[in-house]
Amino acid sequence: MGCDGRVSGLLRRNLQPTLTYWSVFFSFGLCIAFLGPTLLDLRCQTHSSLPQISWVFFSQQLCLLLGSALGGVFKRTLAQSLWALFTSSLAISLVFAIIPFCRDVKVLASVMALAGLAMGCIDTVANMQLVRVYQKDSAIFLQVLHFFVGFGALLSPLIADPFLSEANCLPANGTANATSGSHLFHASRVLGQHHTEAWRWSNHSLSRLPAQDRAGTRVSYAFWIMALINLPVPMAVLFLLSKERLLACCPQRRPLLLSADELALETQPPEKEDTSSLPPKFQPHPGHEDLFGCWQRKNFKGAPYSFFAIHITAALVLFMTDGMTGEYSAFVYSYAVEKPLSVGHKVAGYLPSLFWGFITLGRLISIPISSKVKPATMVFVNVVGVVVTFLVLLVFSYNVVFLFVGTASLGLFLSSTFPSMLAYTEDILQYKGCATTVLVTGAGIGEMVLQMLVGSIFQAQGSYSFLVCGVIFGCLAFTFYVLLLFFHRMHSGLSSVPTQDKALGMESPECYQR
């Protein structure tokens, strides 16, 4: 009861900063999911092929990783952190406003690189500030923080859906009919040996279309709406800066007095600081540093090879699962509107929202489930569920209902894979390795690489390859997970102190949710 009262007192005292940090993660989610449903319109707007537009995803994900590292620079003081959040959230609104004017894919990739830097900075700074405020009580607040990612990712496709183009990019003539009503990016594959000529003709034809007929004109309103919806977020950060007297025009504020109840709670004898209650990403262990500094630690000398094998295989599992999350969200809309399904553009626009909605739901329901189920078991169920779902989608590839059901199923299975894998791997290594750093890096690289790979294969082999890639990636994830179990057993035999009880993940597993 005293713990609940202390947490409630902390929340009352830090309500505005907490709401502000939650809101900036809404910006993060808003920016992470809009590319999927707007992909075809952006391709028509930039006159680009699918492999070319895939570089937009790559630039965003690469700069997200760079932004995460850059965000650590601003963690030293509250003023630096808040100004970084203000700049990043404002940059996201500017990105949404500028996207409709990007008529070249290179310009669009550059703009999305800026968005990636802002998202990475938000990811690092907001997490660190919440942990700094609530410390060992931060788990529940971090859960809500990452819930806002899913909420923003759910909302952005819904905003874009009414403005998606139902018409072809190509003018209605004989050559366009040869593509059987498919979109511009599909023309080069259908025409085969006339790829170069068809591509030049398509660009020339598009340039002669009147402005109101060009794809991307109506979707511009969706981006401007998202820019306006996001605009209160930097204003909230600016207001917090003002309240904390961190603006140049405001003098340094004096500390506020506590109420009698809060003072009583604050002056209670503090419990021994238990850093194990913090998420692994924020545990103050010397092993949890940057990627290069982590592996330079001298005490790794003499470690068994199973120690390094666990890091690598766990990272490869998340390379596949997080990569599947990125590529499915990015290309499920393009797959749905292509043959054989030929789903209407507006109906297909709900698929990314459905996917992210069930990811958000899965993150919520996995909290009570993880208190009763081992992390290893959860990862096994998730990976097998992903493989089975993709196989069902492949068998019933002509059924639209199965596509929607399968999209929801994938969202549920992929939602808790990262936190469960992180908890499982950290427990195996007794928090002595670089698991957090390596796993986060592997997951981020997977999102970059698999989106690029699927975009190229989709262009060359057709829409059916989208599901085939999913099955292959799922089977690879399962294979790497089996290898992880093998190295776990081997590592346990080499360890001098058995850690079987800890490996069950029964200690505050909700703290490990991403």
UniProtKB/TrEMBL annotation:
In the bilayer, the protein is annotated as: Multi-pass membrane protein
Q: What is the name listed in the Swiss-Prot or TrEMBL entry for this protein?
A: Major facilitator superfamily domain-containing protein 4A
SUPFAM superfamilies hit by this protein? MFS general substrate transporter
- The domain of life is Eukaryota
Q: Which family does it belong to?
A: Belongs to the major facilitator superfamily.
This protein's GO CC annotations: membrane
Q: Where in the cell is it found?
A: Membrane
Q: Which GO terms describe its molecular function?
A: transmembrane transporter activity
Q: Which organism is it from?
A: Acinonyx jubatus (Cheetah)
* Bilayer-crossing regions: 21-40, 52-74, 81-101, 107-126, 138-160, 221-241, 302-321, 347-365, 377-396, 402-424, 436-458, 464-487
InterPro entries, alphabetized: MFS, MFS_trans_sf
Supply the Pfam families for this chain: MFS_1 (PF07690)
Alphabetically ordered keywords of this record: Membrane, Transmembrane, Transmembrane helix
Q: Which gene encodes it?
A: MFSD4A
